[in-house]
Amino acid sequence: MLNDGLIEEPENIKAYEYSVLVTSLNNDVVSIINNYRNRADCENNFDEIKNQWGWGGYVTKDMARCRMLARMVALIYNWWTLYVRLSNPDSHKESITSRPLLMSSIGKLTNSGNQKKIKLTSQHRCMDKIAKLQKELCEFFDSIKNIAPQLSPLNAWCRILTKSVSKFLKNGQIITMQPLIESG
To answer: What is the pLDDT of residues 52-90, one digit of tens each?
Structure first.
């Protein structure tokens, strides 16, 4: 005979959930929880790189090749993250959702006179959203291109970085970089 408790939960049961954090920090509970939460947010990036970008390890004993491949994956991850942030600066999109969203298009390059145009065709169900994001991104790059002769490459790069991380900047703040000057 089967016990009813194994099949159905009794009606009068109370469920509790506990979290235990052990630490040697002398901080108050709220700051310890914030530190733990921030660490988890940071680990999400490493989890994404490892599981969605193939940074989980290599099967060769050649350290030079392992390091080169790890650097290539990190570089591609950084460029992709920057591109996705430029497309949508308000939120982080993991590659598992952003790659199908932004790479599901078929492109055709046309040359006419002195101009090159890329026409993208998408079958993605969110193609209207994708088109809007791409249009805004093209307008942003066109605005930089229009003033490019007056900008140094460093200033153009600062504008791109400012847009990509605008969510984290104070209202109206602009990223500036001073070139490194070697002291002799």
So the answer is: 888 777 777 888 888 888 889 889 988 888 888 888 877
Beta carbons of 151 and 159 less than 8 angstroms apart = yes
Tokens of 66: 């392992």
DSSP three-state, residue 54: coil
| Contact indicator for 70, 55 with CB cutoff of 8 Å | yes
Q: Rounded to whole angstroms, how far apart are CA atoms 45 and 53?
A: 11
Please state, in angstroms and rounded to a whole number, the distance separating the CA atoms of residues 173 and 162.
8
Helix (H, G, I), strand (E, B) or coil at 57: coil
CA separation (Å) from 84 to 38, 81, 96, 125, 184?
A: 22, 5, 12, 18, 41
**What's the full length of the chain, in residues?**
184
pTM over 0.70: no
